[in-house]
Amino acid sequence: MNQCGMLSGLLRYRCTAEIFQRCGGGWMKPSSRALSSSTGLKVPVRLSSSSSYMKEMYLAWQGDHNSVHESWDTYFRNIHGSRPSGEASERRPSTLLQGRALSHSLDTTQKVVEDHLAVHSLIRAYQIRGHHVAQLDPLGILEADLDSFVPSDLITTIDKLGFYGLNESDLDRSFQLPSTTFIGGQESMLPLREIIHRLEISYCGHVGVEFMFINNVEQCQWIRQKFESPGVMQFTKAEKRTLLARLIRSTRFEDFLARKWSSEKRFGLEGCEVLIPALKTIIDKSSAGGIDSVIMGMPHRGRLNVLANVIRKDLNQIFCQFDPNLEAADEGSGDVKYHLGMYHERINRETDKNITLSLMANPSHLEAVDPVVQGKTKAEQFYRGDRAGKKVMSILMHGDAAFAGQGVVYETFHLSELPSYTTHGTIHVVVNNQIGFTTDPRVARSSPYPTDVARVVNAPIFHVNADDPEAVMYVCLVAAEWRSVFNKDVVIDLVCYRRFGHNEMDEPIFTQPLMYKQIRQQEHVLKKYSRKLIAEGAVTLQEFEEEIAKYDKICEEAYTSSKDEKILHIRHWLDSPWPEFFTSTGEPQSMSCPPTGLDEEVLQHIGRTASSVPLQDFKVHPGLSRILRSRADLVTSRQLDWALGEYMAFGSLLKDGVHVRLSGQDVERGTFSHRHHVLHHQEVDKQTCVPMNHLWPNQAPYTVCNSSLSEYGVLGFELGFAMANPNALILWEAQFGDFHNTAQCIIDQFISSGQAKWVRNNGIVLLLPHGMEGMGPEHSSARPERFLQMSNDDPDHIPLIIFTPKSLLRHPEARSSFDDLTEGTTFRRLIADDGLANRCPGDVKRIIFCTGKVFYDLTKERKLHHMENDVIIIRLEQISPFPFDLVRVELDKYPNAELVWCQEEHKNMGYYDYVRPRFLAVVANRKPIWYVGRDPAAAPATGNKSTHINELKRFMETAFNLSTFHGRNI
Predict the structure, then answer these.
(1) What pTM, to 2 d.p., does this model score?
(2) pLDDT by residue (tens digit) across 530-581?
(3) Which residue, of 80, 91, 502, 574, is most buried by count of CB atoms within 10 Å of its CB?
(4) Could you say which architecture CATH assigns to the domain 828-969?
């Protein structure tokens, strides 16, 4: 059965049962007998199959008219020509006449039921597909759903009535309305003509509502009531005047910039000026509901207008950005003005409540900011104890082409209801230009609407004609209330146009001639709406002109004062300043690493907790019990491996009140089954234990959460989370180091250059498993060369990238003593060789510098060749910033030694290109430094195990046999 057939069957089941119950009284209750339809539904016996019931009831009625429901009493009277009941009882028709009358009555009843069901199907069709014929395009030339086809089950012309078995004569018949519609208001029956009229008002006007895919009856009914109830889209004169004033500010701001800087790019909002009052309406409604912090992300179109009229940044600070001679007052490139962020706390005039508004800085990767906003929102909710998102919320703005085309949008939606990532509902506002740069949407997306990706999380989608400001405002009010009531995402699709090209210098008519001919004739929305309000008497022409003059004066005064600004203060544009992070001079506090050692008892306590199950009667897997016992043995011997060392680091921070959050794919157990920070009860579903949260009575919380199978979205989320608090440890772990490939946009645009561009500080830490294990090119390398290339080598900033081990997690030599962690110890940027050769430094023939796993290969090879007295192996634990001072000390110790840099990565990868000029700076060309490692290659590793082993053997031999050295002087 097709979809329409299934829908019809479902409606027939519901409506037939309803008619039985309403009209049949005690005689016509739904039968327990049922027929199986092809839909698989169990439906009561249909009226056409119920002649025996009707005959039984008819015979009973003949004996006693009160034995049936009054509706059936009336019905049977009509069969007998409306004769009085007494006459009907005394003058019973013959058996033949009874049969004919009953047959006729059954046919009539069947027709009545079929017509009612048809009307119910018609109502449902409008609810499902009405948006396809809504008048959404302000230009009147395009179809918002890219399809001019009108669904055959929508009554757009009289002849369409035949689809439902109805005709023109039925238009004035009244029909019972189902409980799944609110178009009747207080009325339960309406003429068909009025039913169609009200459905068109609700679903086919300037608002198109997509919601019937939502699998929650309560939510669907809520939306129906908001859009179907008669007269819902009504505003007071005061509300209309406020809307007009906001539209004036939005429009005149763009006009002012166009007049003053006619040859500058500004990515103006012309064609969607309604965005400003839309955002302000959302914020007002949310503020009234208790929200006091709103975090926003958006692309560059309209950003300056949002900064000016929503965030309320000082206009002179915006205008001075157009001065080409402006100098930077502090660190930061300044970036272009339509990428910068802002943070502002002010009074909301509509609610008289304090509200904090934050607009995140965003690169030209338009949707990259989406997960960052969500992460920062989650962090603020977390630190404020806002568990239901009643105080902090997010608003994301999008362009139509990017919303449909960029995968991070889906990744962000996919996080929206995950327990450790949900922000309890985001309001998405799509500025639907109906074009992407020069690309027609018909060749830019496969979905009918750019917003279809939101359907994956059952988010309602409200399409609205952006040239109808009141329709936009109503949709915004509903969206804000939806988020407050259901704590779920919602999408507003502002179907608009772009009055100019991609930017003000671009000529769009080359590729969109018909669209832009219409746009040049298109009347501005402000002019249309002001004319409407003047005609209604809501505002006078004089008041309208005075409001324009008032805002123009504000802009002129700000423009004049902006000329006095000779220096750009980037810090004015911070989207979330870190409290107490900066000194009184505005400079960052020193990030030099202080002593990090711990008291022995603290180490022992953390170790005992790490190797136990804090909860009673909690059954863990036998294999895990063995792992915990092995961990306990390490603690007893005052030894630790990587997993236990991680436990020590996290646990000690929690003791000091520092929140730790670890996120990524399978981080709870660990990809290599080494971590086990979340224990699972083996007999009780969903019962878990996090020992780290049982360390201290007043400790900070530890959050460890498996993420969705996403890198771009999740890393962006954690980066946003880390923005909210400088005194927290936020870590993202890649399942394998090379998985950061798909999150490279976040690394390039936010992590490596965020401070240089926007003074955007962040403490995110990346844990990237790295090492050549002979497993092939896919998961061998975390690409350290990329991160080193992006480093600014500032010695006052500690690294954020940690190349974590794989095979070393269980390597018997990869151990440390508690002595390395006790009081007075600190992070060692360089680990010197304390072996036999260190006793006679003058006899040392060779110094091998290395980093990472290759150290254990080198020590094994040195021992094999009995060269412990001749060769020193030194580990660089911190590559960037490069430890010039410590390298110099080691070189001075061994004046007669030859120098080697050894790495297991290929020569064109790894650390070679970074360390080469830095070693040369240290030795000052006094002696050569040899390179030892794999030859250059395109892939990061071989996929052949024997080749891998041969490569390793070859460069190990080279490292210890300079007489047959095949390396090169670096």
Answers:
(1) 0.88
(2) 999 999 999 999 999 999 999 999 999 999 998 887 666 666 677 776 766 6
(3) 574
(4) 3-Layer(aba) Sandwich (3.40)
